């Protein structure tokens, strides 16, 4: 299997998988209880198809491309030329859903990685997409990237280290009071996550394994952060420098090939050149 990753643009939007192309879980305001009671979401979609609007998804991407720059990476399988994975990221103020988690808000100096989604059978592409996202953000001078993780297996108390890298989340939970646990339960129940799109959220375990640190602990929605100016910048700077050297070498080689004189077509030695004078004048010995 050969997979290439490229930046998402409007021309490739139509080739995105159906769910990725239509789901606007991150891109619109969450539905309110009042709207649900009326059978409509805050975005005006039917309650049976929450947060599905290809028009709004395309408009969101178009606006970011115009105002901010690249906001997505696409993985393409070379054999079938089909999209097998996508990654989306944006400033948190362009992601309405980012304000509605128990661990919100996202830090002001970070870009939010909303989702990395792969098609069945292409799970390993997630790491390639993440590398592409980090490389793009580092080149653009972004300081950090954050993401909301989803704990899919119970409390996930064996997954994380709490913010600051001290005790693990399991140790932290042991010291929570009954009131604190009740408060967490209320946050989960009261927060508008009953319409949660699990396909468009990143696994907490994937973020942790990828080097992210927990900056806001939660039993179900921890917020992770990865500093981009510590231990990662050098890799992309070296790769960029090497790429520039290769390009310069290719240009230099092309220039030499253009100026080189083919064998046998260059100027002949003076001794071999034929004189333009007639033979009788060449023999003349003038005093």
Please tag this protein with its features:
287 residues; alpha+beta; eight-stranded mixed β-sheet
Structure commentary:
The chain has 287 residues and is α+β, with helices and mostly antiparallel strands. The protein has helices at 18-22, 33-37, 54-67, 125-139, 169-174, 178-190, 204-209, 233-259, 279-282, and strands at residues 3-7, 72-77, 82-90, 110-118, 144-150, 202-203, 213-216, 223-227. Strands 1, 2, 3, 4, 5, 6, 7 and 8 form an 8-stranded mixed beta sheet that branches. β7 (213-216) and β8 form a beta hairpin. The chain starts with a strand and ends in a 5-residue tail after the last helix.
Task: Produce the secondary structure layout.
Blueprint: E1 3-7, H1 18-22, H2 33-37, H3 54-67, E2 72-77, E3 82-90, E4 110-118, H4 125-139, E5 144-150, H5 169-174, H6 178-190, E6 202-203, H7 204-209, E7 213-216, E8 223-227, H8 233-259, H9 279-282
Parallel strand pairs: 4-5, 5-6
Antiparallel strand pairs: 1-2, 2-3, 3-4, 5-8, 7-8
């Amino acid at each position: 299997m050969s997979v290439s990753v490229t930046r998402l643009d409007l021309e490739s939007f139509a080739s995105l998988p159906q769910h990725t192309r239509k789901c606007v879980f991150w891109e619109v305001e969450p539905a309110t209880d009042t709207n649900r009671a009326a059978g409509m979401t805050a975005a005006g979609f039917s309650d049976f198809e929450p947060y599905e609007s290809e028009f709004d998804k395309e408009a969101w991407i178009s606006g970011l491309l115009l105002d901010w720059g690249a906001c997505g990476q696409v993985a393409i399988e070379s054999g079938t030329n089909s999209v097998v994975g996508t990654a989306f990221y944006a400033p948190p103020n362009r992601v309405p859903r980012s304000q509605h988690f128990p661990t919100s808000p996202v830090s002001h100096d970070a870009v939010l990685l909303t989702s990395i989604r792969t098609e069945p059978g292409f799970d390993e592409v997630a790491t390639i997409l993440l590398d592409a996202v980090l490389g793009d953000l580092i080149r653009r001078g972004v300081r950090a990237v954050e993401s909301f993780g989803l704990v899919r297996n119970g409390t996930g108390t064996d997954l994380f280290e709490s913010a600051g890298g001290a005790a693990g989340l399991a140790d932290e939970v042991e010291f929570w009071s009954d009131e604190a646990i009740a408060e967490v339960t209320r946050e989960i129940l009261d927060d508008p996550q009953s319409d949660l799109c699990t396909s468009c959220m990143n696994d907490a375990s994937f973020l942790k394994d990828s080097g992210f640190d927990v900056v806001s602990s939660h039993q179900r929605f921890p917020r992770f952060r990865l500093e981009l100016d510590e231990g990662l910048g050098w890799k992309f700077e070296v790769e960029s420098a090497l790429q520039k050297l290769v390009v310069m070498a290719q240009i230099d080689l092309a220039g030499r090939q253009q100026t080189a004189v083919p064998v046998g077509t260059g100027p002949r030695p003076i001794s071999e050149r034929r004189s333009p004078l007639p033979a009788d004048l060449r023999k003349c010995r003038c005093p």
